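Request from the bench team (R.T.):
"We need a structural guess for the complex before ordering more nicotinamide-adenine-dinucleotide. Sequence and SMILES attached. Just send the C-alpha cells back."

Command: build protein-nicotinamide-adenine-dinucleotide structure.
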Amino acid sequence: MMLAGKVALVTGAASGIGRATALLMAAEGAQVVAADIDAQGAAATAGVIAQQGGEALAVTADVTDDAQVAAMVAATLARFGRLDCAFNNAGVAPREAAPLAAIDPAEWQRVIAANLTSVFLCLRHEIPAMIADGGGAIVNTASIAGRIGLAQAGAYVAAKHGVIGLTRNAALDHAKDGIRVNAVCPGFVDTPLASRGIERRRAAILARVPMARIGEPAEIAQLVVWLCSDRASFVNGADVAADGGHVAN
Ligand SMILES: NC(=O)c1ccc[n+]([C@@H]2O[C@H](COP(=O)([O-])OP(=O)(O)OC[C@H]3O[C@@H](n4cnc5c(N)ncnc54)[C@H](O)[C@@H]3O)[C@@H](O)[C@H]2O)c1
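Reply to R.T.: structure attached below.
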C-alpha cells in the first residue's frame, strides 16, 4: 500500500476529485481527514471510508477563512497526532463565462479566494505541522487553466496560474524542511464543478483533447496518491498534467 501509516488531509473531499482521492488514499493505507465546506458531503466521504474498513475524520471548514483552516489542521493533529500528506484541492468554478473586462470585481475576489488564497492558507498551517514531525508531501490542485488560457474564464485562469507559482515557491522555501510540494493539472474531469461547462462546450473541448474524452476523478486521484507517496521522493515543485494530452495540443 502506497500510503501505509500516513495521515492525509484532503480539502474539497465531499465531491469530485477530492472525494475520489480521499477514498483512494484510504484504500492505500492512509488515515484520512475529509474536509469540506459541505459538512454533509464530508461526513458522507468519511462514512464510505469507514464502511470500507478505513479510518477517517470528517471536518467542516471553509478554506478561504484562516481561522477555519487553522482549526482543520488542529483537528487533524488532535485526532491522528501528525500530518504527512495534504491535498489542497477545494475550488470553485466561475459563476458565468465572461470576457476579462466584464468580470465583476466581487466575482474576481470570490474566485481568487476559493482557488488561490485558500491554497496559501492551507500551506501556511500544514507546513509547520509537517515540520514538527520531520516533513511530508503536499499536492495542490491547479488545472490546465494554470498552464494555458481558457476563453472567458480569466479569474479562474489567473488563480490556477497562481497555484503553480505558489507550489514552486513552497517547494523552494521548504525543501530543507523535508517537505515536497507539487501541483496536479487536471484537464476536463467529470465532476459537478465542470458539468455545466462540459455540457455547453462538449464538442469543442473534445476536439482539443487528443484522447477525445473527459477524465474521471479516479484518474486524477491516482496521480495525487503517487505524488504524496514515497515513490515520488525526488519530485518537487512540479506541475504534472493529467489531461488526456490537452495542453500538448
Ligand atoms: N473538474 C474539472 O474539470 C477540473 C479541472 C481542473 C481542475 N479542477 C479543480 O479540481 C478541484 C476539485 O474540483 P472538482 O472538479 O472535484 O469539483 P467539485 O465541485 O466536485 O468539488 C469541489 C469541492 O470543493 C468544495 N469547496 C468549494 N469551496 C470551498 C471552500 N471555500 N472551503 C472548503 N471546501 C470548498 C466544494 O464543497 C466541493 O465539495 C478544484 O480546485 C477545481 O478547480 C477541476
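Two things stood out. Residues 11-12, 14-18, 36-38, 41, 61-64, 89-92, 114-115, 141, 143, 186, 188-189, 191-194 surround nicotinamide-adenine-dinucleotide (CB under 6 Å). The helical segments are 16-27, 39-51, 66-80, 105-131, 154-174, 192-208, 217-228.
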